[in-house]
Amino acid sequence: MRYPHQGLLSTLVVLSPCAVLAQGSICDKYASILFGVNTGSNQYSFMTRLINTAFIGNYTGPSSVKITGILAPGTFNGEEVSLLPYFNGGLASANRGYRPGNRTVINFIDDGGVFALAQGKPSYGQRSNQYKLFSHMYQYFGGMLGCSLYGQDGFPAYQGNSRMYELHKFMNIAPLQLGYFIQELSLAAVSLGVTQEDVTAIASTLNTTFGQACAPAVAVLPNYPPDLQALCINTACPLANDPICGTYNHQGGFGIDPKPASTTAGPVDADLAPVLFSIANGGRGRYRTMTTSDIDITTTISGKKTIITTYTVVEAPEAAISFTASDILVTTIIDDEETVIPSQTLVPVGGGLTRTGAEEVTTDGWVVTRDFTSIIPSSVIQETTRVITTGSSVITSTYSVTLANTALNGLQSTDDLVTITSVFTSAGGIFTTTITREMRGTSTSTQSPNAAPMRTAAPLLVALAGAGFVGQMIY
Predict the structure, then answer these.
(1) What is the reported pTM?
(2) CA 60 to CA 71: how far, in whole Å?
């Protein structure tokens, strides 16, 4: 039985998939309004803010527009709906390829989750499911909404599969689920100052492109050919004009409900509710610094050299930073079997030399006096690498050793000059920092009480890549 499609999805004006592109670009218009200058990076920032706001609410500031958020349970047309199980690994609903029946459980909230989104990021690292999902959404919506600098000038072109049906074929999305997604995205746009006319155009394009079962192929992105795009494949979805159900290779064009996962890998409603409630009510929370460490494990499997990549997110102290080594376990798939590999990563810890005082800077005949704080880590990492052969595999093993920073031993200090040089190596790279300060008046040097002790980490089978970028996290 096919049910009528009601509410937002039926009341919007029906536009062609390229209608948004024909309006002088909604993307360009609001990139200029929100950020002052219409550059590629600002267009990408607009897409980032639009998507992140739709998923978690008004994280950038107070708004009179109430957004529940796609990750939170809500209502559409008076019916309760929750999209979270599609994102947190609660359902076997993802499709990693073109093979029918390849249902996969994937946690797409695996790298900072709501916290990273609330800081205007897709995730903390760049190797996670979350990074791939959200960065692809920024790119896809940018192409769809007509960003003029899409694919250039700080706006990367879409890197994913352009066939939206294939990506969503095992989700059995119905008007309720699609309607809630479009509703929250529309409210996010309104909260960012997008006019009702432009919001209607955006929502209509989404509905026309994705909301009709068995829809003929259509081109959505620049430089992509027409392809199957229907997301709404439940029997309750409205049937497209000139339907081609036989071309959709899953259940004759219509879906079946995805199976629940045995366990949910990502956060559940109870985990997200307090944070999303705080964001919805204008709460900014406190921030703490996080860092992402990327790890490459080089091994030979079945005679072929393979690099297994992973990462870990750890808290970085706000005090002076030193380093230690931490043992972790990396779960990967080898020959279709889940394999756990012991590994290791660098972890920053508190400790180091913090020097405060006043400095004089001379420029163009002017002498400027200002306070300064210089920080030198109390410990660094040195690495020794060797190759281990075991069975048919060759594994690169790195011994990470935490050592006292020799730069502290070479500290030269007088009443008017301080010169500090810090040299350390990490993952084959040599980093040298030289600080020379001319000082007047008094200064103080303090050794942090929690400086990392010298120690040698246990040897582990790993090729260590070092630390990644630094972000901020709400808690």
Answers:
(1) 0.66
(2) 17
